[in-house]
Structure formats: structure tokens, C-alpha cells
Amino acid sequence: MRLGARVPDPDRRPGPPWPIVAGGAFAAALLTLPLAALLIEAPWSSAVDQLRAPAAIQALRLSLTTSLLAVAAAFVLGVPLAWVQARLDYPGRSLVRALTTLPLVLPPVVGGIALLLAFGRRGLVGPALGAAGVRLPFTMAGAVAAEAFVALPFLTLTVEGGLRQVDRRIEDAARTLGATRWEVFRTVTLPLIRPSLTAGAVLAWARALGEFGATITFAGNLPGTTQTLPLFVYVTLNGRDPDGAIILSLVLLAVSVVVLAALRDRWLRAL
Amino acid sequence: MSSGGPEAGLEARVVVRRGDLALDVSLTAAAGETAVVVGPNGAGKTTVLRVLAGLTANAPEGHVSLAQARLDHLPVEHRPIGVVFQDHLLLPHLSALDNVAYGLRHRRGLGRSAARGVAGDWLERVGLTGRAGARPRQLSGGEAQRVALARALALEPALLLLDEPLAAVDAAARTELRAELHRHLATVAGVRVLVTHDPVDAASLGDRAVVLEAGRVVQVGAMADLALRPATSYVAQLVGTNRWVGRGDGRGGVVVGGVHLDVPVAPAGPTVLVVDPRAVTLAHHRPTGSARNVWRGSIEAVETGAGVARVRVGGLLPVVAEVTTAAAAELALVPGTDIWVAVKAVAITAV
Q1: A178, A183, A188 member nearest B91 (Cβ)
Q2: Are strands B159-163 and B81-84 parallel, antiparallel or unpaired?
Q3: Chain A residues in contact with B89 (beta carbon < 8 A)
Q4: What does pLDDT average to over chain B?
């Protein structure tokens, strides 16, 4: 360190414009304040009891089950969709991308109504499903469907990005070694996009876990069947037990922080 | 595997039209023979190899036959081929051993442990026993290329395709790897087709060269034949020979680029002349000996090899001369200096 001997740096930029710095600091504080309040105001002393409450455990367990099932569904549907979007050049590809990305920006309530109009009892394909013995609205399967609907774009876009990164000549090389297209997909492509599969699944899971609007609209708010954690938090906050709502909010916050930390290399470094 | 000979050979016409590439190449090679497809960048060499492998579609008028059987409708994975790619293209998520075993499992249908056993033998043959567990990114360029070679050879292909197999290897390792490659190629009973832009690879690894320029075959033959009668200036440059196009005056002379040359045989009209660079002499003073063909040029470049210096002289009639390094030192050949060039009439061949 050279203290004192300050050589003027020819590349040194002039001081930062203080109004922008002040504005940025204010925004950061504003965004941090609610999270800080959640931590400060939380009824820590009763936290363990709140988490042990049967109703809370029921909602937690249901959320875990539905969100994991939603990720599985998103996986089964999203990986082929991502492959088609990344690898096939067909007319209308941009349109398909727009439509399959829409749930990303669509108000979840609108998604829920749309699901109802499609798969509801009097919906577009609802009666046919009903005849086949499948009922989605106001069932746990419906909660899974609502979560999968909003989570799918996260998985598809991430996996599609990963597929575009793969050097297709490596897949060519595998074919010259006697592997069919399907074997190449299974033994070369999937292992090569594993980081994208993981990241996409984690993002989709985080989105499914927090899903509120589409779920309550399409699947309702039935404790033990469709009342997932966010729904339970909302109900208890306005009802008999606001403290329980705060503690369960902390659980969801912790999950979000863990997801962000897990994906920091992938998502934050690029920004 | 069937024995060698033309009946087990490759017979192909490769036709690809795509963007600025218009490729139409006929190619034959006998089993046990290495055909070298050589040409400048963009000539379509790699595309020829991809069509033979089935990775790029051949036009309807094209065809690929091996041992008198058509391969055209066979998908890549069912063709009896082995391919060594330019930048090796090892499967990055598999170890060196599993890269070699991959083809044995998928093409030959061996079980995991049997495939690994055979793969281990092949790694030993290319001198990589200790590197079996290494991932591709942990391998040096030369090691990766050896794994790629073992991976292709392990399939005992009836058609071995090699795309610039030495290009991704640094110069220090290249000579050694070239010698190894030569040894391994000799053990392949099938047809070998090697693509390169490097004349040294072509001469050392190939039995026969097929020279491609802008998607067409311009010449086919042994490298020595190419040196005697280069069909184009690219071929001449490739084999290091001087090739001039001039006009014979019918009286024993040919005028090339403003220089009048005496030639033993005296054609009339357009004439191609070929001169071995070793028959070109350089001097600081105008030569007075028997050489009748003398002109003045300017040294453009001097490349020094093992005991030999190649000197490129520009001017009215650009020429490459090959002199001993001792002579080069004595003459103090420096780019930019003017020099006298002399060629004996008997050293000029009209083709």
C-alpha cells in the first residue's frame, strides 16, 4: 500500500453523481426494510410452538407435496418443450414461445380463471376429464396443476438456454459411435444440461411453493386438500393467529434465501 | 473384417449445395489405403467427411458405397465408421476410458465391463494407460487426440475418417503424434480418409492425395506426382514447387511474367512450367555460368528448416528457391535485398 504518495491516476473517473447514489441507497433501504421488519417483529419466543401447530404442519406438508409434484409435472412437460424450442426450426416457434412464457407475467388470478374455464366442471375439456374420472378443480391435483402452470416457464426457459449452449458436434460424435438420437439425448444431452435442469427445477419449485392466486382461484382454499402454505398464511393473518402467519412467512423467506444462494453463480454473476 | 483391395473400398460422389459452398467431389479409396483430402480453408474438406459419415445430407445425385454396398440410407449410428474430429469432441462428462467404451457399448453392443476392458486395451495401445480416469478437460491436446483416436480405432471401422487430426495439437507434440498416427493407420484394415490442409500431414500419412479447391477436385495422385505436375498454383504451393503459366514462342523459349526462359522442349502457345526449388540458384552478382535463365528479384521471406532454407523471391517472376542453410548464411539472405536468380534450362519441365 502506498499511503500519502497519491499519484494522480489518468484513468480515474470523476466522483459519482451523489443524487443517483443517494437514490440507489434509498431504494436498497426501502427494499430491505420490510424483510428486516419481518425478522425484528417475529414472535420468536413462540416460534417452535407455532411451527408445531397441527394446522401449520398440515399446510406445510401439503405445500411440500404439491410443489414437488408440480415440479415433476413441469419437468415431464417442460424438458420436451424446451428441446423442441431449442432444436426445431418450425413456423410459429416465436408464437409458441410467447404463449408458453405468458404464465411468467400473467396475473396468477387470471391464470386460475383460465384453468377453471379449461378444466373446470363446465370448462372446455372439463366434462371430458370428468367422464374419464379426473376432477381437477378444488382437489389437490388442481392445486398441483395451478402450481405447475405458473412454474413451467421457469423450467422451460432455463432448460432451453442450457440446450442452446450444448455443442451439437459432441452429439454428432456420439452418433458416429453408434448411439441413436434417443440414446444421444439420454446419455449425452441430458448429462450435459444437468446444471440447467437443476437450476430450472429449483426456480420452478420456488415459484410453485409461493403460488397463491391461481391456486385459490382454481383449486380453492380447503384445509388439508388445497390450502397450501401461502393460503394458510393469508387466512391466519386475517383471522385468529397473526403470529403463526409471521412465523410461516419466515419459513417461506428462508426457502427463498436458500434458493437464491444455491443459484447465485448461475443467476447473479451474469447480472 | 474382409481383406483389403478395391472391392472392399470406398466409392463416393459427394454433392452439397449450401450458401456459398457448391461441393461436387468424387472419391475412391481402396481398403488398406489412406486417401488424403487436402485443400485450402473453405474448400469443403470437412463437409466431404461429414457426408461420408452421414452427418450431412448428400444431394440425390450423390452416393456413398463401401465394399460395394450403399451407405446412403444408413443412419449415422449404423454406418461401419470411426471418426476422429479436429478438436477431438470427446464426451466431456465421461472419463477417457468411458469415451472409448461408449462406442463399444452402443455400436458393438458390449456390456459395461466388457466395453471397459476392451477400451482399456486401446488406451494402452495409444500410450494412455495411466490417464483412463481423467476427464477430457484434464487432458492435454495430444492426450485428448489420442483418446479420440483410440475411440475410433476400437470400433475396427471399415471406414476411418479423420478430420485434421493434428490441427488441435501444439507444434511440439505434433511430430511425435504424427508418427504414432502413421503407425496406427497402418493397422487399420479398412479405408482411411484423412482431411488436412497441412502438406506435411498429407505427404507423411497419405498414400494418395485428392486436392480440393472451391468444392471441386483439381488433382488426384501421389504427392510425388503432384510435385512433378501440379495442376494449379495451389497444388504447386502445397508441394513446394514453382509453377508458372507462360506462352511458348515455338523457338525454344517461354515468356513468363515478362521474363524470357530457355526451355529444353519448346512448346508453342500457353505452357505450364514446373521448376524444383532445389534447381533454383541465388547470387549477389550476375551469374556467368551455363545458366541461361537469369533475372533479378527481391527477397520476400526466408524460412529455415532442418539444414534447408526456403527463400521466396518476388519481382517480375516470383520464385521459391531451396538452398542449404550454410549457403543461406554465406549469402546473408535478408528480406528486402535484391538478388540474382538463375535456373538451368534442363531444370525446367514443361507440362
Answers
A1: A188
A2: parallel
A3: 167, 169-170, 172-173
A4: 89
